[in-house]
């Protein structure tokens, strides 16, 4: 991913959780996870220009967000870049389980690459998904999201996403998952990590290892937002070989064999779900 010299425009890509296995809550309050992340062509746009003082404007969001926190964190670490005005045009649905806020924050941190040490630690302090977005690429993720292992890009496939009118709080979804119970143990999570590594080493489409495309937060998201089940059924009806909730939801995702199949399915769904999105994995 290239960053245009200031003043310029950057893209902050959405990420798809192809799976999400959840373990127990850690001492820091976060949950141990195992997941496969894949960056998507769907992206927010950040316009960056020099200004008299730092200012961050995020479309549709009032008050500070992760983007502003990222810029403030760089200043706290002594970054000497010029004062900036950053305007974020949102294309990734907000609070949709697609990592849009984390992607925006990571894009801001990339402005200081080579000038500020410890960007990954700074990213982890902003949010669990931010470190993986510093260099968007397919990766196997562990810890609470801070342990990142790049993996081979998958074979061609397409993605259809059905966002909900209102997002879901990640904290609320994890709390509901805790209430529902049955977190995975450390030994099981490690076995899952090895199985995921073996699956992606073949570099096939995610549809070639559908048995691994599990989201442990799906039941909690549906418990809080039952209409998600209708969206999943709609994707099944439109021929999605695999449909699931991504991340903490509430976005329902259908994985198709090709971008063309995904685009055709999205058009058939548009009358019922005007906000439907067809996209594909980001290729670099």
Overview of the structural elements:
There is one protein chain. By secondary structure, the chain is α+β, with helices and mostly antiparallel strands. The chain has a single domain (8-279), classed as Ribosomal Protein S5, domain 2, CATH 3.30.230.10. The chain contains 9 helices and 10 strands. It has helices at 66-76, 100-110, 119-126, 130-133, 170-180, 186-201, 218-224, 228-237, 259-269, and strands at 8-25, 31-50, 55-58, 84-89, 139-142, 147-150, 158-162, 242-245, 252-256, 277-279. The strands form 2 sheets. Strands 1, 2, 3, 4, 5 and 6 form a 6-stranded mixed beta sheet that branches. A 4-stranded antiparallel beta sheet has the order 8-9-7-10, with helices on one face. A hairpin with a 5-residue loop joins β1 and β2. α1 runs parallel beside α2 (100-110), α2 (100-110) runs antiparallel to α3 (119-126) and α5 packs across α7 (218-224). The longest helix is centred in the last third of the chain and has 16 residues, at 186-201. It is globular and about 55 Å long. Mean pLDDT is 93; it is low at 1-7.
Content of β-strand: 25-35%
Q: Outline the low-pLDDT stretches.
A: 1-7
Number of domains: 1
Order of helices and strands: EEEHEHHHEEEHHHHEEHE
Broad shape: globular
Gyration radius, in Å: 18 Å
CATH topology: Ribosomal Protein S5, domain 2
Distance between the termini: 7 Å
CATH class annotation:
Alpha Beta
- From the helix content, strand content and strand pairing, which structural class follows? alpha+beta
